[in-house]
Structures are given as structure tokens and as C-alpha cells.
Amino acid sequence: MSDVSPARVAADADVLAADLFVDGDARAALDHARSHSWVDLVASEHLLDDAEAVIAALADPALAADWRERVEDEAVLVDHPAGDQPALAAAYAGDAAHVLTYDESMRSARTGMELKGRVNVSVKAPDAFAQLFDPAKLYPTVVGGEYTGPDRDPRE
Amino acid sequence: MTAWRDLFDRAADREAETEDVRAALAEHRDDE
């Protein structure tokens, strides 16, 4: 198993789409990545396919396409087998320490993958990640030096 | 590249809630 990065996070498609539609905990969670160039969102084509389908269903294909173009430009894209749970598999392939989901049943999926020794991730609800992720604490070890605050506008 | 604020503004017009998103994803994955 490779070392996971505490500054890498994968979000399941429900969190990715909720981030777009709702000014709530998913957006607060992913703002950590948007606000910091050294915090990476990890995603896969399968994961983005799911989120894009949800966005197209709830809005329209044009918004879904624009959203995907933006996410693909920023995320660390990884590949994994089609049958795997996309968020967990993306986290594994991308060495992410965190998986965000609204699906409580993913805890059991996580257990199954852990038993195979494949994944060492923390599966969290978005509100928990939004509150617990501490960039000031991580910065000295991930980047080095003193944390001076966000280095990106999360709305740009 | 579309700014996040513009994507959020366009999506807000749909007034979708988190539960709507979860239901849509469940339906999508059931169909696959």
C-alpha cells in the first residue's frame, strides 16, 4: 500500500453534485480544496460520469458539461476498474486520505476494501470534513513553512 | 473556463436540495 496524502480528498458523486447545487456542507468541504492550491481533489472518469449524469438530470447538459470541464481542469484524475465504488477506488488510485460521501453504507464498503489491505482512507460526511480539516495544521508537513491562509479564491 | 461562482449561480436557479441529488445518484447507479 502506498502512503496516502492528508491533503488529497476524493468526493463521491453525491457530494460533487451537492457542492454545485446547494450552498451547504458539501460546498464548505470542497472549498478547502478550491481555496488551497496544495489540497487536491482526486477524481476519476467513472466518478465524474456519475456526477455529470446527476447534474444533467437535475439541471441541464450544458451546465453539466461546463461543470465537468472545470472539475477536470482542477482535479487529479486517476483511473480504476469500472466495477469499483468510484469514490473509494479514486481515493485508492490517487493516494487520498479522505473520502467524502452522504452514503452511510460506504462505511461497509470501506471495511471490505480494508480487509483486502487495499485502502487506508477516512470516510467522512461532508460536514465532518468541513469542520475537521485543518489546513493550518497540515501546511507545515505537507508544504513546509508557516500557513498564511488560503492562496486561491474558491469562487474564481 | 467557467468561474465557480457562475456555475453555482446557474445551479442555484434549479433549487435542488441535497436529498434531490442523492435520489438522482441512486437512480442513476440503479440504472447502470
Care to describe what's here?
- The complex is a heterodimer of chains A (156) and B (32).
- Chain A is an alpha/beta fold.
- Chain A has a single domain (5-136), classed as Rossmann fold (3-Layer(aba) Sandwich), CATH 3.40.50.
- Chain A is built from eight helices and five strands; from the N terminus they run βααβααβαβαβαα.
- Chain A has helices spanning 13-21, 25-35, 45-58, 61-74, 86-93, 106-115, 126-132, 135-142, and strands spanning 5-11, 40-44, 76-78, 96-100, 122-124.
- Chain A has a five-stranded parallel sheet with strand order 3-2-1-4-5, sandwiched between helices.
- In chain A, 42% of the residues are buried.
- Chain B is mostly helical and 32 residues long.
- Chain B has one domain (1-32).
- In chain B, 72% of the residues lie in helices and 0% in strands.
- Chain B has helices spanning 4-12, 18-31.
- Chain B is elongated and about 30 Å long.
- Chain B starts with a helix and ends with a helix.
- The mean pLDDT of chain B is 95.
- The A-B interface holds A 12-14, 17-18, 20-24, 26-27, 34, 50-51, 53-55, 57-59, 63, 66-67, 69-70, 73, 102-103, 154-156 and B 1-5, 7-8, 10-12, 14, 16-18, 20-22, 24-25, 27-29.
List keywords for this structure.
heterodimer, A: 156 residues, alpha/beta, 52% helix, B: 32 residues, mainly alpha, 2 helices
Largest sheet of chain A: 5 strands, parallel
Number of domains of chain A: 1
Helix percentage range of chain A = 40-55%
**What CATH architecture of chain A do you see?**
3-Layer(aba) Sandwich
Please tell me what the overall shape of chain B is. elongated
Q: Beta fraction of the residues of chain A?
A: 5-15%
Multimeric organization:
heterodimer
Largest sheet of chain B: none
The largest chain-to-chain contact, stated as pair and per-chain residue counts, equals: A-B, 32 and 22 residues
Level-1 CATH class name of chain A: Alpha Beta
Series of H and E elements of chain B? HH
CATH topology of chain A: Rossmann fold
- Number of strand segments of chain A: 5
Please, what is the average pLDDT of chain B? Answer: 95
Determine the structural class of chain A based on helices, strands and strand pairing: alpha/beta
Stretches with pLDDT under 50, minimum 5 residues of chain A: none
| Count of domain modules of chain B | 1
Distance between the termini of chain A: 36 Å
Kindly report the name of the CATH homologous superfamily of chain A: 5'-nuclease
For the CA atoms, what is the radius of gyration of chain B?
12 Å
Number of helices of chain A: 8
